[in-house]
Each structure stands twice: as C-alpha cells, then as structure tokens.
Amino acid sequence: MEKESPICHESSAEESCGSGGRLSGEPLFGSSGLSAFRSIYGFGDLMVLQSSSPPSGAYLQNLSAIGELLERDKQREKDGFPRKIRVGRLIKPGRGGKDKIILVPTTVEEKFIHDVRKTDPKEESTSGGSGEGKEGEVIGEESADGLDGPAGSGAGGAGQGEGAEHEIESSAYDLGKVLGERFQLPNLKSKGKKRSLTRYTYDLTDRHHRSGQLLDKKATLRKIIETNINLGNVSDPHHIDPLEFIVSPQDEVYRTLSREKDYESQAMIFFLRDYSGSMEGQRTEVVVTQHVLLYSWLLYQYERQVETRFILHDTVAREVNDFYTYYNSSVAGGTRVESAYRLVNQIVEAANLARDYNIYVFHGTDGDDWDHEGRETIPQIRKTLGFASRVGITIASAFTDRGETSVEKYISDSGLLNEFPLGMRMDSVGENATEVRLIEGIKKLLS
Amino acid sequence: MELINQHTKMIMEGCKERARRAGLRFGNETLEYIVTNKDLLELSPKHMIPTLYDYWVNDVEVLKEKGRYELYPNNPYETVINTRPAISFYNDNNPDWLNVMIFYHVLAHIDFFQNNMFFKHTTDEDFAGRALSDKSSIAVLRSEKGRWVDYVIEFSRGIDNLVGFHSELSELNHPPEMRTSRKLDFYYDTFLQTIRKVSLTDFLNEIDRYNEAVRQYGEMAESVFFSGVTRTYPEFEALFDRHKKRGQQGVRDLLEFVLRNSSFLQREENQWMKSVLEIVRKTSLFFQPQIRTKILNEGWACYWHEKLFLKDDRIKGNEVGFARVNAFVTALPRFGINPYALGMRLFSHIEEMADKGRLTYDFQRIRSARLRRDYDKGNGSGLDYVFKVREDFNDFMFINNFVDQEFVDRHKLFVAGRRLNNSGRTFEYYVRSRDAGKYKQMLLDQLYHPPYIEIDKSRMEDDCLYLNHHFEGKPLIKEFIPNTMLGIEYLWGGPVKLETSEPVEKAREFQPGQANPPPDVEPPHQRVLYTMKNRQLSRAVL
Hints:
- The complex is a heterodimer of chains A (447) and B (542).
- Helix content of chain A is 34%, strand content 21%.
- Chain A is of the alpha/beta class and 447 residues long.
- In chain A, the strands form three sheets. Chain A has a six-stranded mixed β-sheet with strand order 11-10-9-12-13-14, sandwiched between helices.
- The longest helix of chain B is centred in the middle third of the chain and has 22 residues, at 271-292.
- Classes of the chains: A alpha/beta (447), B alpha+beta (542).
- Chains A and B meet through helix 1, helix 3, strand 2, strand 3 and strand 4 of A and helix 2, strand 3, helix 3, helix 4 and helix 6 of B.
- Strand 4 of chain A pairs antiparallel with strand 6 of chain B, so a sheet runs across the interface.
C-alpha cells in the first residue's frame, strides 16, 4: 500500500492545518510568505506532548453528504440568503508527482476579522528565532520556486503511479460532474463524441492453455504448484521439492496474440500560468482554482480521455511535470506572455499534436506584460489559434477599477477576438473573485 | 471514548498529591478519557467539547486557513477542557512514565484554569454540562423551527468574536468596596455628564458633596444625598426610572445589544431566537480566555511538568526518554516561536529575577551591565512571584512586563526576517534584530486581537444600527463584510451601517528592469461606510 503523507501547504511539519491537507481555492496567509513561521496558536498539547497526528480520513464521508449540502444551499437561496457551500478541493501530493485532488465540500464562517494578508509579495515577514548569528546575517535559505525537489524525485514504481493517477482522475471527474449539475455548465457532448476507440493494437495478452505462441513460464509454474497442492504433493510449504511434482500438459499456459482497443485521448489541455513576481498571493489562487475547475470539467466532458500539459512562465516559459509543481511554484522575475505561447507552439509542432487532439489552451495572468503593445505576443497567439479549439485567457487583476491591463488592451486592439469568434475567449476577473464568479468565468471561456 | 483504566488513574492520583504538595491548587475530581482517531474527528470541530451543540458547519470542511485563529480562537486539539470536573484526553498507547509527564502538564493547566483571573467567569461552572443542556435546547428548537435555527446560529456566530469578554470580566473582578449602586452610576456617569452636561468643577463639587454625605451619615448617605439631588433636579427620579426600565444598563457587546434592543427579536414569534443568541454568546465567552493566555498557560504547564517529573520517585530510569520528549516540546526553535519553550523560560527567568530581588525599582535604575549581572539581594521569593503571575496575568501583560534584554540575550533570541533575495529565486532567513524592544513588539504583534467595533448610539437614526470600527492599522477582511452584515441586519431587523477604514487603492506599475519595486510606505487609509439595507450592501467613502 502506498502511504501518502498530506502536505500542508509548504511545510510538511506544519501541524496547524486541521485535518491534514490544504484546501485550494482560498487565498492563504502563507502564500504570501509565512511558510516557515507558524503561529503560536498552532501548537496543541495532543500534537506536541502526545505526538498524535491530526485525524484524517473523513473525506469520502464528506463527499457522500454533498448532495444533502447542496440541497441545503438551494434552500438558502430560496430563503433569500447567499449560497454558502463551495466545492473545495484538497490537493494531496502523491509519490512520483502524482497528485490527488480530493473533493470536499467547504464553507467559511464570515466574521469581522483583521486582514493580515500581505498586499505586496515582496514584503518581509518576521517571527522569532534563537541561536547564534550576528544582526543582519543570513542564516538560512529556502527555494522560492515551489517544491521542485520532491516532484521530480521518486519516479520509480510505475505500477503504483498508475493507480494514483486513476484516483486523481476519478475525484476530478466527480468534481466535473458536480459542476455540471450544480452550475449548469455548457455541455460539449458533440465534440466529445467525435473520436472514439478507433485505434487497435496487437499484443500477446490473451492466455490459453495447452497451446499458443509463447509459454508464460510464471503462470505455468503457478498452475503446476496449484495442481500439486490439490494432489497433496506439497506437505511442507517451507521445503518444496519440485522433483516430486507431477506436470500435466493442462498446466501449460501460453500467450496468444490478440487485438486490443487503444483508448485515445481526445483532448489535450495546455494550462499556462504567469508566475512572475506580480502574481503572488490571491491572483495565483484565483488562476489556479479556475484551472482546477476547468480541468475537472473537461475531464468529465471528455469521459476522462484528457491529457494535460502544464506551462509556467515569467520572462521565459518552462514545462513542469505535474499539477503540484504547477500549483505551488511562485515568485520569479518579470513577465513575457509571448514566451508561453511560443513554447506551446513548439510543443505542438514538434509532436504534430494538432492532428490527433482537440487542443485547448488556458492562460492565467494578472495582465501585466513587458511587451506592452503585444508586438511579439499577438503573432504567437495567432499561431496558437491556428490549431487550438479554444484559447481562453483569464485575467486576475488586482486593480479592476483601473481600466484595462496591458494584455487586455493589446488583445482587444489586435481584433483577435473578432477574427476568431469561436477560438478565442478572454475573461477578466478581480483578484477577489469568488468560486461562483470563477465558474461563471468558465462558462464564458468554454461557451 | 472511554475512561483510562484503574492502573493509570492511580498514577494520576499520585501526581495530584505531589502537585498539591508543590503548591498547585485544583479541584479534586478530574475525568481522563482515551481518544482514538475517530473520536478526534468528531471532537475537533466541536473544540474538544463532546457535548457542544450540533451545527451543520461542523460537518463540513471549513476553510480555516484564512485567519484561522481569528475565526476560531481555540486550539482544535486541546488536551484539557476547562470544566468542572476538568476533562483531559489521552492516547491509548502512552507508556506510564510519559503519562506521568502529561499528567503533570495537565494538572498545571487545570491549576491555571481554576486560578487565573481571566478565567474567573468560568470558575465553578460545569461547562460540559451546560453545553449539553444547550445542545438539547437547540435540538428541541430545531425540531420546531427547522432550518431557521441554523440561520440564527450562523448569524450570531458571525459576531461572536466581538463579545465583550473584558467588560464581563471587569464586573466579576470589581473589588466589593468599589461597587456602587446603579443609581449613583447613573447620576454621575449619565445624568451629570450626558444629560445635564455640567462643567468639570460642578462635577467635582458633586463628588465632594457625596463624600461629605458619607462622612456625615454613613449607611444612610445615599438616601440623604439623593433627597438633595431631587431638590436640585426634580426630573432625576423619573429619568432614572425610565433608564431602569429600558434596561440598557451594562450592555457588554453587540450580541447583547441586539438581544435586548432588536425590534425583530422582541416580536412574539421570534422570542426563541434570543435563547440561541444567548447560547452562542456564552459559548464564545467561554473560549475567550484560552487564546489570550496561550504562552502563559503552556509555559506554566511546562515549567511544572519538568519540575515535578524530575522529582517523582516513581519513574526512575526513564530520564532519557523524558529528556527526549521534553526537548522536543520545549526546545527553542531556530526559526519561529514555540509558546511552550518561550513561556517556560520566561517563568524560570521571572522566578530567578524575583529570587534575586531584581523585579524592583532599584534594579531597574541600574545602568551598569556589571552591576546588573551581579545584582542579588537574596530575596528568595521567586516561587511566590510566579504564582502571582499565574494568577493575575495574560499573554500581553506577561510579555510586555517580563521580556527584557537580559532574557533575550540569555536565550540568544532574535527577531528573524524572511525576505526574497535579489535573484528572486530564494527566500533568505536572517537575524533582523537582537533588541529586546523589537523582539517584544514582534511577539505582541502575533497575539490574538479581534477588531474593536463599537455601537455608536449617537448616530443611530431610524432604527439603523451604526457600528464603528476603531481602526488599529489593519483593515477588516473585505470579502467577509457582506455576509456578516447580512446576518446582523437579519437579527437586528433594520438597516445596519459599518464605518471602517480601507487602504486607498493605488496603481502598481511593473516595468522591465525594475523587478523589485521600491518598498512602499504604509499605504494611506480612508474611512468608508458600508450600509446593509434590505439585504443589499452599498459602500461609500466618507
């Protein structure tokens, strides 16, 4: 059994995070840089003195109750109060970069409380410390680049990995279903059913007794032992003497060549995210939350036949392996939107992906771009639009009342939205966007 | 949940004897339960009180990270519950020696709960029992009123962090000789100052007149005094009677104000809501002192478990195991603050200071480092002093009074900073300051502090509730304002206004070649007024 320890946002030693996981979709204190500094109120006797671990394991139970909770929520609306249940997601990093998205209904109890979130990501945070060191001396470092390390390591155990993968898919699939039912997202069925199960491969997979193309030695040996146990030839299981075995031709297991259906992925989704310095904090949360929801929705629509690629960019773009790194990486330099689209175009061209897939590109940014007029960016986006079924840009800007951001401006000026009425969508949300707003955004991006 | 076995209970009783001999004071009866993972799952949303009322939000994963401790001022995995008899929780596989250590820790907590003055409103109260009766009254209401009970719970909980904990306490801790009659309070506090608006001289003359009456007539002073008052102000008696009837006396917080004055709640069919508000308010008050004494309480418990464990003859041979666990609990971390470690060291520091007679004005005045180091009057009163600290202090006072340069230097404490280095790819941790003043300020900044929101009666027109948030450098969480105000409007039965401060939004430019924008000075704030009327929120800049 694979045992996965839930990681509470950045520091695995963090004990204060309740039931042992971290919910996405909500801006955190920590995301603006308090990872190593845990609150004094995070200490509790049971954890510290008796080294108990926070209880875990109630998520499944929560999921089954979701129907009831949504029912309650509907009733709230009828009674004239805003809805309160959100479809929260708990991201648990698994081994070998296989993240799990666990679906939990969440809510928040609103009160008047002080806002201590930092508005500026560059701002310092302080806490206590003890030990040697002169004033001003740097005594420790931590990578600001998300958790690159653990994600890349541990590539072994392919078999187990598969299982974990399936688990992500199944909960994300559930999320997609809930989104569809609750928020009446548009169905993409016509597109989803176009390609199905067309490819076959031939492999030595079927088993056959007594004759065939290839003797399966392991299966044969197992069968022989089984037969001999039944015959009573094995008296002491610790000292087996194979010389006493009787081998019957019935026990020989062969493999035969057979035709296999190869399920083909129908959609390829590129998630692009700006992780430049200006993105830190709530903007990132907004973008990533929307991307989780999008991913889940498309997974549901395409009946799980979806592949995803994750690309982060600041002034240069890079592809990352898994959602966890995509989600957690933060803080880098300036912004060049062009680099991300260039990378997408390269990847698609190199593998000729446009022939086999419906390609979706979703890009999240705060709208800043050093390339103010989009001179380099527009041609790259135009190229992407040449093969993509949809390019959706989400702009999570901190200052919605200040008019258009650079990206919004050059995209509207370029006329791409009119030129590709089916291929291109843009949605501008505030950095304080709620889940409901984000789901509205998805409708817009997918419509 | 089941009780610990007889063998372990025997150990606990042994610990009680030894702890009492050392000077701790606590009630005789305690209950100890074994908890499993499953129990914890059920207990932690109920703040470890098994009998707390049911509420659907407890069954949902709540987004707590945002302001976790501001929203829920208590630890979800506390071991000891402050009730009578005190309840504590244990793992079922603790070895005996570890239980001895934990028992001492627990007993010190119980001693703290039962003697610290910030817990005064909870003394002699079986909270678990009261919670049980609250739970059943809520269950009964729910069977009659259905989901509306949950709405009322939700809306009352929305303002339960604003309970008047300190006003509640100040009444309890009022020395009896300072207690005056309501009539006198009304005369001096309201009548003279607000209604007559007398000058300061006249006010002082009136005080003299009363004191004179006390000297002359003793017991009879008040009635004699007021017969004089009625002669000067014939309207006084009538006003006082009206005041008594209105019953606005001693409104300690928003919840209580709404409870007494809301036109909506006074309606016949809504009377039941009042009991829900009262339950929510009482429950919140119960948890208030815990978060305000975290460092003090944990420090006290560690100070004692260490002291008592090492003297306990029953656990010979387990010193190494103890040392390991104790170091894990009480070591000062390289980065961050451990309330156990800090509180324990501060208690030992105070004890030593008092022993040497350093907590005196004479010592404070000494400037010479050498003289300060060698100062020892041999008072030996340290232990009495720490008992006094345990009785009269909370975290703020504890830190503010006793964190000094000697303490900071001795334990090599510093303010640690975490900043993005110039490359923008790594966070650096560095020693920011070793100054005791800065260290103290850093600690104080971390302490729990709910916003200070007051009801401004002078601006309440047309049945509109006017709330004034006294700005202390931190704005309120904006996203939470609409729903919180919606809840207050529902309970109040009329429009609600909230005056607060918000940062002025300003442009942030991000240009090439300027990866690190210059550090901003504190952004300017402006006063804004939110109005919730007919479930619609509007905002205006004042």
